[in-house]
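Give me the fold.
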Amino acid sequence: MRLHLLLYRLFEVVSKMNEPDSAVRNISDTARWVAYFRARETQRPDALFHDPYAKRLAGERGFQIANTLPEGNKHEWAWVARTYLFDEFLRREIQDGADLVVNLAAGLDARPYRMRLPSTLLWVEVDLPEIVGYKEEILAIEKPGCHLERIRLDLSDRPARRALFAELDRRATKIVVLTEGLLIYFTAEQVGSFARDLAGGAHFRSWIIDLASPGQLKLMQRTTGKQLSEAGAAFKFGPLEGPNFFVPHGWEPKDVQGLLKTAAQFKRPPVELLSLLPEPKGPPGNFPWTGVCLLKRH
């Protein structure tokens, strides 16, 4: 089943878990929900990042979703920590000479607009047509800080994505890839295939991902996971090997940072989770861990 169908069914199930007039109706609505957390963080005097576009991207529906879904605001700390870590890893890669950023399943991310970027940098966003269309409408009068292109593509279409990767590989010498919130919907086999496709490009040098442990995956599957499985869109990827899963597929983990540890550093973690610190060394296994990883092609 294609990725866009899986995601549509995922968010359809989430909406049914709420009242009949729930604001969550499709994937675009849920992307607005994620933007809502960035908008909330931006309003804080001690904000870890500033996204002046998030409120518009979230829209009224994004704010409604967060306050309609059960525990809609409970995991704000994790979204904020993930955004912060992606920002930091990406900033480092650009400073190290990356000349092309490829954001796969970009959603309503506004980094090309909100981050200070070299004007010579090329940034390519890839996502489903519905998301891209909505985003272009909201940001139509805004100017990104670098050269920005958007591509409408279903990333589960392997021939199409391989053709895209080959084209992008010819356009730059040092490419950094972002996949934020994507891999968890793939099976291990699909993630391996995806990783090998990226590693096939000579100029794809680094890859920033978010990752869940098997323990965290089980927790998620025991909550909303039952309904998602019935819809054919379950959370699937939480490798026992942790970040080392990617080594046989061409990628070596260079920096791994846990979301809870990062949130604690900036006084964001929920009190009830502080007992989980410090995080275990090595693969987290059944420990409920989520984090962001910087991978390098070897």
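The radius of gyration is 18 Å.
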